[in-house]
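User: I want to check something. If I give you two sequences, will you return the structure for each one separately, not as a complex?

Assistant: Yes, each is folded on its own. Here is the first sequence with its structure:
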Amino acid sequence: MRQCYERAERLSLPVYFHGSTPASLILLEARLQENLQNFVIYGCYSSPFREMSADEERAEAQCINSSGAAARQLYIKGQVKDKSSSLGA
């Protein structure tokens, strides 16, 4: 993952983190910004630890799309979904 973060920093690609616990996301954000000074995080969301409803998934997809992050893939429920199918791009 570090290589992905370093590449995003080098290419000035803002990211959006989805999943994990709020505490883990806060820690991840702090460590990344400490170690990669030009790393840009446009948002993060700790999704519920349960099946999300279709409405919840649509609302979160809208948040990601409107964040400006350079999202290429969205990780939901342990699966990688192509942005074109899950984010309505």
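And separately, the second sequence with its own structure:
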Amino acid sequence: MTEKDNCHIFHKILKKIDLFSKPIQLTINKKQSYKTIQGGIISLFLILLIIVILGFYLNDIFNHVNPNFFVEKSELDFNPVYSLNSYNYFIGVRIEDDDYK
């Protein structure tokens, strides 16, 4: 392959990944949008940037770098008194077998 053929193939690849192509009202070469090399370059850069940023975030998550956690403690300003009797006091019990298959 010549250098011109390689360049042509690279241009076709960049045009295929163009995320910023503009839709047109008429069809050009039976296509609904017009894709450009510049749009392909920007799209390729954006995809690589997203992959790199995602990689850094996943690396931080899996290596437990800078873990963030929040603790919130709240108390009631008043302690209401409830009168419990056999009509308004319900209890629930759950029995579970950990070895059940």
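Because they were folded independently, the notes below concern the second chain alone. The beta strands are 22-28, 31-34. The two ends are 63 Å apart (CA to CA).
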